[in-house]
Amino acid sequence: MGRFSGISVLNQLARLYGIQTAYYDVYHHRRQASTQSLLAILRSLGVPIATLQDVPLAWRERRQLMWKRLLEPVIVFWDGGPSVIQVRIPSVIAEAPINCYLKLETGEQQSWKLSGADLAAIDTAEVEGAQYVIKKLPLPERLPLGYHRFTLELPRRLEESLLISAPLKAYIPPAEMENRSWGVFLPLYALHTEKSWGSGDFSVLEELINWVGEMGGNVVATLPLLAAFPNNVEPSPYLPASRLLWNEFYLDVNQVPELRECPSAQSLLASPSLQNEIKALQNSTLVDYQRQMALKRRVLQELSNYFFNHESYRLKTLRRFTEANPVVEDYARFRATCEKQGTSWQSWPQPLRDGILRDGDYDCDKRCYYLYVQWLAHQQIEGVSEKARSKDIQLYLDLPLGVHPDGYDVWREREAFISDVSAGAPPDAVFTKGQNWEFPPLHPEKIREQGYRYMITYLRHHLKHTGILRIDHVMGLHRLFCIPNGMKASQGVYLRYPAEELYAILALESHRNKTIIVGEDLGTVPSYIRPAMKKHGFHRMYVLHYELATNTHKELPPVPHNSVASLNTHDMPPFASFWKGLDIKDWAKLGLLDEEGRRKEKETRRGIIKALSAFLKRKGWLKKADVDALSALKACLSFLADSQARIVLVNLEDLWLETQPQNIPAIHDIYPNWRRKARYRLDEFCQMPQVLDTIQIIDRLRKQGRQQ
């Protein structure tokens, strides 16, 4: 086979596996995936190919396998119907009797018989000499919402499929509950008080909820609060050890009930040395995750030892909790084994690496410790959730796109991930070499074959506690840029996912928990993403800085009703820095801009600020003489607050004109990403006249609208 025809078949094989062989970049240039990239990603998906010569056989086998499958592993029914299933049947048995079995989520079972001759044919095909026909198989009635199992039996053939019956749209509050909400945002690690140990904790989050409720707000948003490794070089909340468990780093030790009963923990906590350590953490401007967690662990370990050595009602409660949540026990064993081995699970000996842990593989006290702190974390975040509900406030949580490759999820759910591949982003105007996010993407076929067990579990973990869930990089429901290990980010390819199935799960689970779903749709977004989000009731994000960047020298577009509106995000400079151009100076200092780039950015920014000022003055939000950052901040927030956005989120740091960002993307070693505390404590900023005045303006506009 010649080179041209070999590459042609390679492209066909790649498309059969959902790989985009070409895409358009931000400059609308067509980018073609290289042969080596396609071969590498196909091998990672489990295709048995070593060279281009193996491709034709793999292509033939793939086509044959697809047609031999009677049913798709997952089938979606919107709003319960129409309940018709497409079945691929070999022509030689196309008229044979068919036995059907349906097991509803409730456990109710139904069975019936059909004749293949009575089913309507809609298509035929010949594959590798075999004839196939696609027929319509009707179900006897509409399906109730939920996850159901359908089994089809033909002569010598038996196949099962997961039927997802879901609402077309994700949960949207009914009209009588509709209001124009507002809320605040701050990473929990940055939020601190006089009592906290150098960063925020679950109790501090409750205090923030109380204050927002008193000010008339309805939403409190923060970054992911998921289980993590405290000694990570890059402590990103978007690279958790698990999406199934909470981060014990945010425990408030003083609120643990056992502290009142444990003399050794009380003595340790009261000791001058530990109090001096706490004071040092409080006085630092940066969060020291490793040092702080080590300090908390000393006290929590004492409490754990005491707890497990005394039979009590709470010990019985923990046992019931672990029985109901076996993942917590499994995670505790994993973390204890991590400590004993001292290396990533990827370097463990078998069978540990393959998920088989026995009692001697870990220290029992450490296993008990991780059980205990996870239980405490579940209790404390439940307390946060209950506090929010009692104040009629929605907790706004963030679901990260990926997990740490050394973490629990990848170890336990190995089949659900693609090994030897990292997710990322192709080159664009900002990141000219592309981005490698250094976490493995989910395997689109394996998660289907598993009935999306892992995804449903981590969604439920979040949705039981939150009124709003933000889906990081919502484009990942459709496609994800995947980079084979050892290759540059620019050599990656897009891998497609069964988007309708993912939307169905999110819609169904959001209704069951009455949770609003928000899709992070910022940056370069394919044209089909936002229509799909609208179709399925996802809220989009309206971020003023992004709108300004794409509407330079033009009027800002109206804020959509189905949106969460804000000035910026955690990945962007605060408003005052943006307004004054200080972020451009910072980029130049960090080596992200050369002199020519700095000059162009300054020129562009001057034009943006001039156009924004003119727009705000024309709309009456900014007085002609006002040019300072505070006046501009109030004007921009007023514009958002008076809009039809369902939710307006206020970055608390903007209210005191903070200029330092929380995160500068793709910078790991020259800026303290994810570590900077808020300049003021909660008890300080909640009394600042400047903060209160701006909040009151937002509250009035959200509730009453603009006074004419």
Notes on the structure:
- Helix 9 crosses helix 10.
- An eight-stranded parallel sheet has the order 20-17-14-13-12-23-22-21. Strands 1-19-18-15-16 form a five-stranded antiparallel sheet. Strands 4-11-10-6-7 form a five-stranded mixed sheet.
- The protein is globular, with a radius of gyration of 27 Å.
- Among the domains are: 3-66, no CATH class; 80-166, Sandwich (Immunoglobulin-like), CATH 2.60.40.
- By secondary structure, it is of the alpha/beta class.
- The chain is 38% helix and 17% strand.
Number of DSSP helical runs = 23
Which term fits the overall shape?
globular
Mean pLDDT across all residues, rounded?
Answer: 94
CATH class of the domain at 80-166: Mainly Beta
What is the CATH topology of the domain at 80-166? Immunoglobulin-like
Largest sheet properties: 8 strands, parallel
Based on secondary structure, the structural category is alpha/beta
Summarize the model shown:
The protein has 708 residues and is of the alpha/beta class. Among the domains are: 3-66, no CATH class; 80-166, Immunoglobulin-like (Sandwich). Helices cover 38% and strands 17% of the residues.
Short descriptors:
five-stranded antiparallel sheet; alpha/beta; 708 residues; eight-stranded parallel sheet; Immunoglobulin-like
